[in-house]
Design brief:
Blueprint: H1 2-30, H2 34-54, H3 58-69, H4 71-78, H5 80-92, H6 103-119, E1 124-128, H7 135-138, E2 142-147, H8 150-157, E3 167-171, E4 174-180, H9 196-207, E5 211-215, E6 222-226, E7 229-231, H10 236-245
Parallel strand pairs: 1-3
Antiparallel strand pairs: 1-5, 2-4, 3-4, 5-6, 6-7
Helix pairs in contact: 2-3, 6-8, 6-10
Length: 249
């Protein structure tokens, strides 16, 4: 009897652990995407259905019940891109963001790339994802899924590259996508002398907690953007030190 109880307890612990891991994985998967807003909307619909049942609003209850019955199919259609990405991560063994590079090494590669691009007057826009996910912008870009390296970043932004327009998004030590288009800032205080790259860098940091490196092809200078504020003409040492102080995942 004692052995049976112990086995049940181990099974319960394993069950709770597996469910916890799955929930954590799903949260990481949908974080920063439109899926979060959609799930909030579905929660509101479910609450309305419960209220219609409680207050005996039969017509509303029937409509919501009809919608909820078809909900599994609706979810598959809405989240098909997220489901595809999740299955791909499972197939690659990256469920928990495996193959992360050392943060110091990533910062060094990004800094060297920015310095090289600036010295050659090649425009660049590099976005470092932090806590707020950038999946919405990744989906519109070209998937790269490669380790961060100075050589690759430089090659992406060469004028001959088909994906040099737009931004590169770095997530957990990997270049996730290139050619990503970001929202431009609408802040009237921002100087009109700033080009679209700088405005895009400011725009994305106004909506998320990302850190952005902008290289100006006209001036050959490096700018660092955080929280909607831009610091211009940053040297390599300052860039390296500031990025090291930022909490990158």
């Amino acid at each position: 009897m004692h052995e049976v109880i112990e086995n049940l307890r181990l099974a319960d612990a394993a069950d709770i652990l597996i469910v916890t891991v799955l929930v954590y994985w799903v949260i990481n998967l949908i974080r920063g995407t439109r899926a979060v807003q959609m799930l909030i909307g579905l929660s509101v619909v479910a609450a309305m259905f419960g209220a219609s049942q409680y207050f005996e609003l039969y017509t509303l209850s029937w409509l919501l019940r009809s919608f909820l019955i078809s909900l599994p199919l609706v979810l598959v259609i809405i989240f098909q891109n997220d489901i595809r990405r999740a299955l791909t991560q499972v197939g690659r063994g990256r469920i928990f963001g495996g193959e992360r590079r050392d943060r110091t090494q990533v910062i060094e590669e990004v800094t060297r790339a920015a310095v090289m691009l600036a010295s050659r007057r090649i425009g660049a826009l590099i976005v470092l994802e932090r806590e707020v996910g950038l999946n919405e912008y990744l989906e519109a870009g070209t998937v790269v899924d490669a380790r961060v390296s100075r050589e690759l970043l430089t090659a992406i932004f060469l004028a001959q590259s088909p994906i040099h327009d737009g931004a590169v998004i770095v997530r957990r030590g990997r270049i996730e996508a290139a050619g990503c288009f970001l929202p431009l800032t609408s802040n009237p205080v921002v100087s009109k002398s700033l080009g679209s790259r700088h405005r895009a860098g400011i725009g994305i940091t106004e909506e998320t907690d990302a850190a952005v490196i902008v290289v100006s092809e006209e001036e050959g200078t490096i700018s660092l953007v955080r929280e909607g504020r831009i610091t211009r003409d940053v040297d390599a040492a300052t860039l390296r030190t500031t990025l090291a102080q930022i909490r990158l995942p």
